[in-house]
Structure to design on (110 residues):
């Protein structure tokens, strides 16, 4: 199933033999990821770009870069989630999982 990871940076979440797209708004970070893992699928982009849709969207500590509330950021990211997909938000103090239909929400505070 198609997965994307927003806030991928230099490849800190890269795992070989997995199918996903690593996305970061920093061209420099994506260059570093491609250098470290040339076989990976990485691209420069942001939550304002048309990045397609995915079964799983994982956001990794990007809320502070967004400049809005967590609920606003969730709504922006949900446009990348397929109808039966999920959004996983990994933030410094909590992890959230949302289904596209908003019927499921998981929250874990650290």
């Amino acid at each position: 199933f198609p997965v994307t990871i927003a806030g991928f940076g230099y490849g800190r979440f890269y795992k070989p033999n997995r199918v996903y797209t690593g996305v970061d708004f920093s061209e420099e970070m994506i260059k570093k990821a491609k250098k470290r893992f040339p076989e990976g699928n990485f691209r420069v982009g942001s939550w304002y770009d048309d990045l397609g849709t995915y079964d799983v969207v994982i956001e990794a500590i990007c809320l502070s870069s967004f400049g809005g509330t967590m609920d606003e950021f969730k709504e922006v990211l949900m446009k990348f989630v397929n109808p039966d997909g999920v959004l996983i938000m990994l933030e410094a103090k909590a992890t959230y999982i949302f289904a596209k239909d908003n019927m499921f929400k998981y929250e874990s505070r650290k």
Observations:
- The two ends are 29 Å apart (CA to CA).
- The chain has a mean pLDDT of 83.
